[in-house]
Write a structure and sequence with these properties.
The complex is a heterodimer.
Chain A lengths: L3 E6 L4 H9 L1 H4 L2 E4 L5 H6 L10 E5 L2 H4 L1 H7 L6 H21 L2 E5 L21 H16 L5 E4 L1 H8 L6 H7 L5 H18 L6 E4 L10 H4 L11 H18 L3 E7 L2 H10 L12 E5 L3 H11 L7 E4 L3 H10 L15 H6 L11 H4 L1 H17 L3 H8 L1 E7 L5 H10 L12 H9 L3 E10 L2 E14 L2 E9 L8 H15 L4 E5 L7 H8 L4 E3 L3 E5 L6 E2 L2 E5 L2 E2 L5 E2 L6
Parallel strand pairs in A: 1-2, 1-3, 3-4, 4-5, 6-7, 6-9, 7-8, 10-18, 13-14, 17-20
Antiparallel strand pairs in A: 10-11, 11-12, 12-13, 14-16, 15-16, 18-19
Chain B lengths: L3 H17 L14 E3 L7 H17 L20 E2 H11 L3
Antiparallel strand pairs in B: 1-2
Helix pairs in contact in B: 1-2, 1-3
Classes of the chains: A alpha/beta, B mainly alpha.
């Protein structure tokens, strides 16, 4: 049976359910709306039990879920402790649900639409409803902070986007529907983007044009001194703010790249020399600044970054450039872009394609890792061939059994990796943790470093031992470390685990997707025997050699294998 | 007051919105003879309330005489039956004077 989205609410949520049902093909879930008004019972003992792959969306307004808060709105004095005790009950119910399903989405609390309360005293603690609500929201967040599969959605952003059309009182009194269809449409868009993020479908790179997109004017005509950027001009300020917004994206792990028709030296001079540039050379993971077609440049950027085109967003002020890229590269997201630069930040913030359910240390340092990768490529050009280059890198792979600390990053990797991914299983932290805890199963994480720096936790291997056979269930590696013999090192490690359990055969089943063709190529070059249905097998009495250029540490200790391969299995 | 043509534009606009919102299990037709309420219509009670409230809101936005369709039980009582044309005519008649 398909996984479900369970809608639990204090109001008639059927209009929202219908919208989500109409989008079932896109998000892949069937949608079920529980009877409204039974929020806590609906979370603790749902009529239809939650399954481990399900999503529970709770949309309960503060004044309906916390009875004391309704009294506060009626200007009755209610002690804060009493309100927080009710919040505790709600938090417990949410946590109970979270243990049963893949993910709980909570719609955060806002003041009732149009409520002014005590006006200037609304924010005074102990008196104002606004102050009480802030305390309740903060208390709820503290109670839920340890639950990795509970996330919040912002009702405030939906109603703000819709403005005065956010509600029609008559729909509340006639049908118990407190929000307008436009609010539900905003909410549905956030649910879709959250699910996409969970599945690793979030976009990872913003490719941005330069002239009249990153700065005002044409640098080739005016030089950087003539550009509109910063200064005492409203458009100059708008371009600076747009760069700040891009920089903020980069800090959370979204890569920045440039596709611009310009002379590279002139454009780079502007990026380096203009005193008001927020983004500098090192902020970009890659660039194509030339007179070639932008679609060609964008395709090359994707290749250089080892990412599929579905990972890219392209921003350009020029409608014909946008149209051409849309036509030639339909997998690249090319949003409509405002003509007015003062709306650029708003347009960027409106994009939901970057939503993810976790941000790791690896995300924050990704640009630095790509800069290291550029250095590696330059070193490769100067080396005396691929083997000499690999030997010179000093690659160290650290294998470690999955720990609680690494669970968020391991889950993120599992859900984001597309190209080098054997099974493309998508699991929540809870599901991965439960899977790993079962008898006969192991989940290993791999950290990779070399003389250019750390690449962080970039590989994951899970195996299942069944009698004389060990099965590789998950085998995935970030594209950032591909081609450094880490691939074979992970297979070597899988072999050592099979041997440790007395297996005579090590097998793997490849599950094809639209994007994991590179993984199939890897397995076909791995030395494993392929049989129909993409089954790969290795007879475990033969050692699967570790590449000589790679040092392997297992749970903090140097691997004790005696044999290494100088050129085995050219993966 | 609204002419029939103006009222029809409002009703058809509301129907298109309802289709976008997936209010009905099948796409509602905007043709004048299409049944909306009663036999052949595919609106359930929630869809009907949504339709009537949206028509009221649109009429108000157009600056016409306020409509109170939801208060008129003849529109959704037992045996009620209205096509797109009939709803447009109703709006024209109710916004007169």
């Amino acid at each position: 049976m398909a996984s479900q989205i369970h809608l639990v609410s204090d109001f008639n949520i059927e209009p929202f359910a219908r919208l989500l049902r109409a989008q079932e093909k896109a998000h892949g879930f069937t949608v079920r709306a529980a009877d409204f008004g039974q929020v806590i019972p609906g979370l603790r003992a749902p009529t239809e039990p939650f399954a481990s792959g399900d999503i529970v969306l709770v949309w309960a307004r503060a004044e309906r879920i916390v009875a004391g808060f309704a009294r506060v709105l009626d200007y009755e004095p209610v002690p804060e402790d009493a309100l927080l005790a009710e919040v505790d009950d709600y938090a417990e119910a949410v946590l109970h649900a979270a243990r049963q399903c893949a993910m709980v989405l909570i719609v955060d609390w806002t003041m009732p639409l149009g409520y002014r309360g005590l006006g200037p005293l609304n924010g005074r603690r102990g008196i104002g409803a606004g102050a009480h609500l802030v305390q309740m929201q903060a208390h709820l967040a503290r109670r839920l902070e340890g639950a990795a599969n509970v996330f919040s959605l912002s009702q405030a952003s939906w109603t703000a986007a819709v403005g005065t059309a956010a509600a029609t009182p008559k729909m509340w009194y006639a049908a118990k529907v407190p929000f307008s269809p436009q609010v539900f449409a905003e909410a549905a868009a956030d649910v879709r983007s959250t699910i996409a993020g969970l599945r690793g479908e979030a976009r990872r790179v913003v490719v941005v044009d330069l002239d009249d997109t990153m700065w005002g004017g044409v640098v080739g005509e005016t030089g950087w001194q003539g550009l509109q950027l910063g200064g005492h001009h409203h458009l100059g300020e708008a371009f600076v703010d747009f760069q700040r917004a891009l920089k903020a994206l980069q800090r959370r792990g979204i890569q920045l790249a440039i596709a611009s028709k310009n002379d590279e030296a002139v454009a780079m001079d502007a990026i380096t020399s203009h005193p008001e540039m927020v983004l500098r050379r090192d902020d970009f993971s890659a660039w194509r600044i030339s007179w070639q077609d932008k679609a060609t440049g964008i395709r090359e950027l994707a290749d250089e970054l080892n990412l599929g085109l579905k990972s890219l967003v392209f921003l350009d002020d020029n409608a014909s450039e946008r149209g051409r890229v849309r036509e030639l590269l339909p997998d690249v997201l090319v949003p409509e872009w405002p003509a007015d630069p003062t709306r650029y930040v708003q347009a960027l913030h409106a994009l939901r394609c970057f939503d993810v359910t976790t941000i790791s240390a690896e995300d924050a340092s990704r640009t630095q890792m790509y800069a290291q990768e550029r250095e590696r490529r330059e070193a490769a050009r100067g080396a005396g061939g691929p083997d000499a280059w690999l030997d010179s890198l000093g690659v160290v792979v650290e294998a470690q059994l999955l720990t609680a600390d690494d669970l968020p990053r391991a889950t993120q990797l599992l859900n984001k990796t597309n190209q080098l991914n054997l099974a493309t299983r998508r699991l929540s932290e809870t599901e991965l943790s439960e899977w790993a805890a079962a008898d006969g199963r192991e989940v290993w994480t791999f950290r990779v470093s070399d003389r250019f720096g750390q690449s962080g936790l970039t590989g994951l291997l899970s195996v299942e031992h069944e009698g004389a056979r060990t099965r590789i269930v998950d085998y995935l590696l970030s594209c950032r470390v591909m081609g450094r013999k880490v691939e074979e090192t992970m297979l070597h490690h899988a072999w050592t685990r099979a041997r440790a359990h007395g297996a005579v055969e090590l097998e793997a089943m490849f599950s094809p997707t639209e994007r994991n063709g590179p993984c199939l190529q890897l397995w076909r070059a791995s030395g494993f025997a392929e049989s129909p249905e993409h089954r790969f097998a290795w007879q475990a009495d033969a050692e699967y050699l570790r590449p000589a250029s790679v040092s392997l540490e297992v749970n903090g200790l140097a691997a004790r294998d005696a044999h290494v391969a100088s050129d085995a299995h050219a993966v | 007051m609204a002419s029939y043509e103006q009222a029809l534009v409002v009703v058809q606009g509301v129907i298109r919105d309802l289709n976008d919102q997936q209010v009905a299990p099948v796409e509602l037709s905007v043709s004048e003879d299409a049944p909306l309420i009663g036999p052949g219509g595919s609106l359930d009670s929630l869809g009907l309330v949504s339709l009537l409230v949206a028509v009221e809101e649109s009429a108000s936005a157009a600056g016409w005489k306020p409509l109170a369709l939801l208060e008129d039980t003849s529109l959704y009582g037992e045996g009620a039956s209205f096509s797109v044309r009939q709803v447009a005519e109703l709006i024209r008649d109710r916004t007169e004077g």
